[in-house]
Specification:
The protein is 69% helix and 0% strand. It is mainly alpha-helical.
Length: 229
């Protein structure tokens, strides 16, 4: 499989798995739910939590391949900063998934206080992940601006919107209820949706920039070429 085709495939696969995983999980207990309500939710919906975990297991290799192929198409040092953020995203998602899956395993034995505490820990995946997505977004957005831009300006605009939202979204660290609560709709739907759109645009744009039949990784001495679309 050519690297461009593989980048198309892994880009779409990663974004679809994020969307399907979020849908499979459904609406978990909110920040005001009692420990008993949290424990009862996992008894009733443990299968959904484990389905989410399974989809995230599939997400990791797809996203890891996406990272490698994107890195090969970006210049230094931007690509290295992007990779640091992307790898941290995988790590934080994996830890969060452990908690969701673990809570679902012996749900009938969950103590209410334990269930509430562990769900709170998992919910802070969203606010903490903002630092990771900012690390991914910022260096790539920079490549879309200025006289020596190597990426399309429209991609920079999409990235800038997502970057601004992710920066604002850091306030969810202090949220208590509603839209800005940790793990709430700002994290799970608005923020994740904008970043997913940007990832989709980035992957497709870079895949289209690869010359047919050429390797995705340029020689170490070669300068990156401007991407046009």
């Amino acid at each position: 499989m050519r690297s461009a085709t593989l980048l198309y495939t892994t880009t779409v696969a990663a974004v679809v798995l994020i969307f399907v995983g979020t849908t499979a999980l459904g609406e978990p207990p909110g920040p005001s739910a009692s420990g008993q309500e949290v424990a009862d939710w996992f008894v009733a919906h443990g299968g959904q939590a484990r389905m989410y975990a399974w989809l995230m297991v599939l997400f990791v290799p797809a996203f890891a391949t996406f990272i490698a192929l994107v890195r090969a198409r970006l210049p230094r040092p931007h690509r290295d900063v992007f990779v640091i953020g992307a790898v941290a995203l995988i790590a934080e998602t994996t830890v969060s998934t452990w908690i969701w899956a673990g809570l679902s395993w012996h749900a009938e034995q969950l103590e209410p206080a334990t269930a509430r505490t562990l769900l709170d820990v998992a919910s802070f995946w969203g606010p903490v992940l903002n630092s990771v997505t900012i690390t991914m977004l910022a260096p790539v957005v920079v490549l879309s601006w200025g006289r020596r831009a190597v990426l399309p300006r429209w991609l920079g605009v999409v990235g800038a919107v997502a970057l601004a939202e992710q920066t604002i979204e850091t306030v969810t660290i202090f949220g208590q209820t509603g839209f800005i609560a940790p793990g709430g709709h700002m994290n799970v739907y608005l923020g994740a949706g904008l970043v997913s759109i940007w990832l989709l645009c980035l992957g497709i744009t870079l895949a289209r920039s690869s010359p047919a039949g050429q390797p995705s990784t340029p020689p170490a001495t070669a300068e990156p070429q401007a991407v046009t679309s």
